């Protein structure tokens, strides 16, 4: 059975059809790449999955359970780990405290309370492990403003991991990184997946997508235009035309 089942999702913003009848599955243990040119509807799909955006039509199911009417925090507790939008780093907290706060989110609607309770030390110890998993335990006690962008992106993933999510949902985690940093970060995602973490990865860096994803779904203008093995999908003329038509095919591919 699929972990996540998306059926016939349509989203309109005024006159814009951001998504039109898009279906996709996220299977346990895979790292699924959701790709497509700018404006294709990728972020909108992620927001529908997490509950930030309500679809005009269609279903989101987690292991068969309909999620459509559940609020974001309930979806988080059901195992959706994501970093964008709702969890920005708190600048007055160290990196490890930021991770501990995210971990508390799983247990209470008032995550900051968990930081003042007796399990605080345990939470901090555990949070260092998540920072180690993404390779930034050396800056655990630094404040967000003192570390580079690449580390903040890894912090976001560490915070998502802290709730021990059934699926990790990532929106362009490699954006803004140079190729060496992007490659190192992609290696970390690959390793997490290798250890069993299911991942839905929206990403524009097609070289890394091709390297680490087990399967791809391609959106263009709100519609699904291709799906399958990365090598095959990236060779399809419809996919290449979608990128070239928008003038943003990654030249390195
Ligand atoms: N909140 C919004 N209000 C109005 N239009 C939106 C909103 N969010 C996205 N859109 C539009 O929906 C389409 C898909 O956007 P998006 O999902 O962000 O694409 P992608 O992430 O693939 O670049 C675009 O035309 C975008 O301008
Ligand atoms: Mg986007």
Report on the structure:
The protein has 253 residues and is of the alpha/beta class. The chain has two domains: 1-78 and 166-253, P-loop containing nucleotide triphosphate hydrolases (Rossmann fold, 3-Layer(aba) Sandwich), CATH 3.40.50.300; 80-164, P-loop containing nucleotide triphosphate hydrolases (Rossmann fold, 3-Layer(aba) Sandwich). It is built from ten helices and ten strands. The protein has helices at 42-50, 72-77, 95-107, 111-114, 120-133, 149-161, 179-194, 206-212, 230-235, 237-245; strands at 4-13, 16-26, 31-35, 57-62, 65-66, 80-82, 167-171, 198-202, 215-220, 223-228. The strands form two sheets. A six-stranded mixed β-sheet has the order 6-7-8-3-9-10, with helices on both faces. A four-stranded antiparallel β-sheet has the order 2-1-4-5, covered by helices on one side. Helix 3 crosses helix 5, helix 3 (95-107) runs parallel beside helix 6 (149-161) and helix 5 (120-133) crosses helix 6. It is globular and about 50 Å long. The model has no long low-confidence stretch (mean pLDDT 90). Magnesium ion is lined by residues 42-43. Magnesium ion binds at residues 42-43.
